[in-house]
Amino acid sequence: MKILVTGSDGQLGLEIQNISKKYNTFDWVFSTVNSLDFSRLDHIKCFLDTVNPCYIINCAAYTNVDKAEAEPKIADLINHQAVDVISKWTTENNKKLIHISTDYVFNGFSKNPIDENSNTDPLNEYGRSKLKGEQVCLNNDSNSIIIRTSWLYSSYRNNFVKIMIKLMEKRDSLNVVNDQFGSPTYAADLADTILKIINFKNWFSGLYHYSNEGEITWFDFANEIKYLNNFTIQINGVPSEEYPVAAKRPKYSLLDKTKIKNIYNIKVPYYRDSLEKCIKILQSKK
């Protein structure tokens, strides 16, 4: 069985590459922008026809949230139009698609964990492009699975955890936003969940939410990073207004994971346990 992983040089893609060693009965194909450029729509179908995967795990995305405000057409091309081509191909060829989306499809006005039936209302261009990607995916391929995730981090690539560690090593104090609530997602946990879904006895299509357990702010997250690295830096919680960025962020985007836990029998780790695993990996690389 052949599995194509797009965007395989990103955080999630690299974690899937790592975990794929445990699933050596599969025929793995890992594509990057060099082999499959999502900005070339005419190239995508030809690539898929040639590779002819049984499963596609679509990790490729335009993820620069602030830059998307100035480049909405490029974000839409990669996060929406390319997904349109892929999902049409999977339904025409009777293949299976797992597409990764984001909590940024929500406006953050909720006071309770957000489930898959909650209304979408993105606040920024990135969120709008990802929502349109979801919509064409579901419209084109009713057999597809979409997994929304949040606050993704890994020992690979650039992310909040690695940025915080670098800053904490150099500074005496640091300001971190304390009015945005959610839960981080260790990409290794999400990669493991995706493979469990593929190996599950049945395929249940539709929308799913996945992040680690726990409800925290970015300020709380930074303090856990500080604690696990034995840093002594002073971390100050500040409102979002004191940290101006181009794109608005949802104030509350805690995802309800009940559906994926019940249907696919997924056990979701607590965020602190996963963060500790990631930091141990980072420390071992020094």
Features:
16% strand; 286 residues; two-stranded parallel ribbon; 40% helix; alpha/beta; 6-stranded parallel β-sheet; Rossmann fold
Please characterize this protein's 3D structure.
There is one protein chain. With 286 residues, the protein is an alpha/beta fold. It has a single domain (2-159, 184-214, 253-270), classed as Rossmann fold. Helices cover 40% and strands 16% of the residues. It contains 9 helices and 12 strands. The chain has helices spanning 11-19, 41-51, 72-92, 125-140, 160-170, 187-199, 218-228, 258-264, 271-284; strands at residues 2-6, 27-30, 55-58, 96-102, 145-149, 152-153, 173-177, 181-182, 185-186, 206-209, 216-217, 234-238. The strands form 4 sheets. A 6-stranded parallel beta sheet has the order 2-1-3-4-5-10, with helices on both faces. Helix 1 links the parallel strand 1 and strand 2. Helix 1 (11-19) crosses helix 6 (187-199), helix 2 (41-51) packs parallel to helix 3 and helix 5 packs across helix 7 (218-228). The longest helix is centred in the first third of the chain and has 21 residues, at 72-92. The protein is globular, with a radius of gyration of 19 Å. The termini are far apart.
Write the layout of secondary structure elements.
Layout: E1 2-6, H1 11-19, E2 27-30, H2 41-51, E3 55-58, H3 72-92, E4 96-102, H4 125-140, E5 145-149, E6 152-153, H5 160-170, E7 173-177, E8 181-182, E9 185-186, H6 187-199, E10 206-209, E11 216-217, H7 218-228, E12 234-238, H8 258-264, H9 271-284
Parallel strand pairs: 1-2, 1-3, 3-4, 4-5, 5-10, 6-9, 7-12
Antiparallel strand pairs: 8-11
